[in-house]
Amino acid sequence: MPFITPSSRRTGRVLAALSGLALLVAAPAAQAATTAANPQGCVPQPALKQAFMPWGDSGQYTLAPGGDLESSVAGWTLGGGARAVAGNESFFVGRSADRTSLSLPTGSSATTAPLCIDDTYPWFRLFARNTAGKKASLKVEVLYLDTKGKLNTRASGTYTSSTSTWSPTGTLKIPMTFDSTVAAGAAPVAFRFTPVGADSNWQIDDVYVDPMARR
Fold first, then answer.
1. What is the pTM of this model?
2. What is the dihedral of CA 162, 163, 164, 170, to 10 degrees?
């Protein structure tokens, strides 16, 4: 079985402010202050859905930008051959008409478009499928700008599976520090997914974030 190893206008402004996040993704991670910054005063605007109810999780989740991989991956940063491919996760938690997921071959990585969150967002989940034909791992990280304007990369967990079937991941932690004096403690973040090791190939789909206190 798979498991987790711990380790409008406003939107336009947020994306513009975070255009640097996409650029910084390719830069070395800075080991800077852990307090997140919110340069444009973004405000979380979740669209809630009990996406993981069939697995005993009654939490209300909101879809990450482009997280269903259906319309486009605009705003995402893809590298090393990561690409949208035919074939949705098998549970169709978004819509029955969904048809697409993201392929992550060996040596690739994918970073989501930015999402504005606050400290009521403790974790996120997604669906993943190991297509390597053997036990493989998928590294998951959270990216955000600190109060000095530098990129901070924090490990969220490593998802491991030895089967090729689609499965929901466990809850992946968002390991950030929010300062309530900085724009009510909100901040834009992105999530990065990287196959670990040689011949580690994955598909991912339907990335959801949990605003726990908004249930």
1. 0.86
2. -90
